[in-house]
Amino acid sequence: MTFSNIMDSNSYQGGPGADPLIEARSTVLGPAYRLFYERPVHLVRGQGTKLYDADGREYLDAYNNVASVGHCHPHVIDAVTRQLNTLNTHTRYLHESIVEYSQRLLAGMPAEINQVMYACTGSEANDLALRVAAMYTGATGVIVTHEAYHGNTEAVTAISPSMGGRAGVGTHVRTVSAQLGRDEIAAAIADLQDSGHGVSALVVDTIFSSDGIYPDPFVLAPAVAAVRAAGGVLIADEVQPGFGRTGAGMWGFTRHGVVPDLVTMGKPMANGMPVSAMAARAEVLARFADRVPYFNTFGGNPVSMAAAAAVLDVIEDQRLISNAATVGGDLRAELTRLAAGNPRVGQVRGAGLYIGMEVLDGAGAPDRETARWIINAMRERGVLISVCGADGNVLKIRPPLVFSMSDVDRFIAELTAVLASLDK
Amino acid sequence: MTFSNIMDSNSYQGGPGADPLIEARSTVLGPAYRLFYERPVHLVRGQGTKLYDADGREYLDAYNNVASVGHCHPHVIDAVTRQLNTLNTHTRYLHESIVEYSQRLLAGMPAEINQVMYACTGSEANDLALRVAAMYTGATGVIVTHEAYHGNTEAVTAISPSMGGRAGVGTHVRTVSAQLGRDEIAAAIADLQDSGHGVSALVVDTIFSSDGIYPDPFVLAPAVAAVRAAGGVLIADEVQPGFGRTGAGMWGFTRHGVVPDLVTMGKPMANGMPVSAMAARAEVLARFADRVPYFNTFGGNPVSMAAAAAVLDVIEDQRLISNAATVGGDLRAELTRLAAGNPRVGQVRGAGLYIGMEVLDGAGAPDRETARWIINAMRERGVLISVCGADGNVLKIRPPLVFSMSDVDRFIAELTAVLASLDK
């Protein structure tokens, strides 16, 4: 995947020197730091589904899945503030909050998944899950999708072809399509066995986010059966689909009719506070947990747990899973209507408030350049989205879960105008 | 290192079943989660250098280096709360706070270190530093100290002999003593070269925390020269010594008269908010940063930066580096006085508010059991410390930097009583 919406310093309008803040930023942060959009957005304030830039201009946020219950949600802020004023230590002292949150989190999962460990980022959770799987299976081979992204540590970068291409993954990694075809799974398993790595885990984002958003249900089940028959486990990466985004329950794996061995989660878990976790079947976790006194300094601390619990409160109180289903369904229907008869728009697909819309060149081929043009045009009209997929041509529409019907109307009005200007 | 103060579930007084909270915790968190002390402490509140348990009992905190400017510091809480109420996004939008903080952080470092990247934990920062070093040097071999601990990801666990013994480190890792003797460094370099790994980095905690706290200055310089001559770089792990703890400036490496190539930091950086960073010489960072669009979802976000900036404010406003030097010096002097003529106490060593005190068996040998007994006895008297070192016999005294002279008096009074009861 080329990150079509991630600009290097030569892609900004006017170059980095045109804006003193961009120039200062480039100087102190270096070239790894990229910005969205040809004209980067300088945000100063947020509320619900709206963000505001330094000039006071409002943006409709149809992209950010971290502030999932809405930017600056008062209930989450209150919970964090209260705990910050009381105590913030770590898990080598006793505290109720980690126990109570864990019980609540696990109550929303299949009974087989009965223990949980905490970290600060999705990367750390996936890194931990790989180690747990390897110790349980005695194998190291991993199967991921062609465009997978599972994080930024050395170990999870090695299973993230989206970061360095399919050739850039580790020798212990095999990639398959997001369709998880029976034959390609069988071939990956055989190849890992032949190479001596064995099969440790199938790791999948259960909505196949960076592959381009593939929401078909039950795709996962046959692949999981094959991987388990070969001695491997399923690591469900719920960092993106988890916490209600798909509108079909809390977890993306539910839509596939499977119960994972390990479940990782992060991004929206605490609405922007760095909180992540790995839930597990106790018998899969045991070998690792008995041998390694894993400790994460900030993971599961009282402030993290207060924030995470407040997020669960809001998801329940504001019925955000149901909102994701309803508003997401409405948005998908409107986008499908918009796509009908437009040769520049292909498939509209998604689940809940995670929607992909293919941009084509008019002759049916993926059109990366036009997709990039569209997201920049939307930004100019005050709507934030991005792109994903192997061809960088799938509009990634992934708003906070508090997105409303009137937000849908505004979104559709702006996209209609952008697509119309494209026809000219 | 055996973690002498990290209890498995059989070590608690009465076993896990004796306390419903411990039992519930064991059930949902699993066996990787360990607690401090034979009678774990159930904390509910903190303020400055004091912590309070569920029964209202006060503890003097002489251990926790995360809440470095003191538990629940109002200036830090205010900064976090204000930013939480305003905006919390990520680094792909422009925001002043990351630029301003970076300028301020780098201004306190040698001029050669001129760029910085953000993550959420010290583990992530060290994991990143290893990747940056490998890409810069084209080598993978790493030299660490015998008892080093650099974090919990797969890659940094592989360079952390304290987690799995010296035999448990990766094949690309060689260990040396905390004295970094010329011959052992030369041997490690030669061995890495012979084995084809080459020399990528020397990674050291500049106060040698988990080796047992070795504060001698200038130890590092000859080793760094040898490593550089072999093509490697210095990664200074400042997660523990950084941000003023040694009382001799902001960074532990300064005491050694060296300028690192990469500097990692975490724990006290935001007084308990999950914030970490890796500072770098731009030329060392360039190859990685040009090729890898590293992105850390929560790293460097506006709330993290607000918390980190507030910590710098407090370190400056309350002159905490000077306090660490003065109060730490007083504490060390008192401990030395206490040790004099007591055959159960060996060397007292440290810098600033990072102090180690050896516990001996009376015949001069390290005494792990007695050290463990002392920290549990101190806990019963309301003072929190721990142990470190290969033999688990070095009392680890590492209080928040706001430790006062009256805190020293209380600490010494309690330790005097505990040592007296030992003599009987």
From TrEMBL, chains A, B:
What is the similarity comment for this entry? Answer: Belongs to the class-III pyridoxal-phosphate-dependent aminotransferase family.
Return the PROSITE patterns for the record.
AA_TRANSFER_CLASS_3
Is Heme there in the keyword field? Answer: no
Superkingdom, according to UniProt? Bacteria
UniProt entry keywords in alphabetical sequence:
Aminotransferase, Pyridoxal phosphate, Transferase
The region annotated as signal peptide is none
Q: What organism is this sequence from?
A: Mycolicibacterium diernhoferi
The Gene Ontology terms for molecular function here are:
pyridoxal phosphate binding; transaminase activity
Protein name in the entry? Aspartate aminotransferase family protein
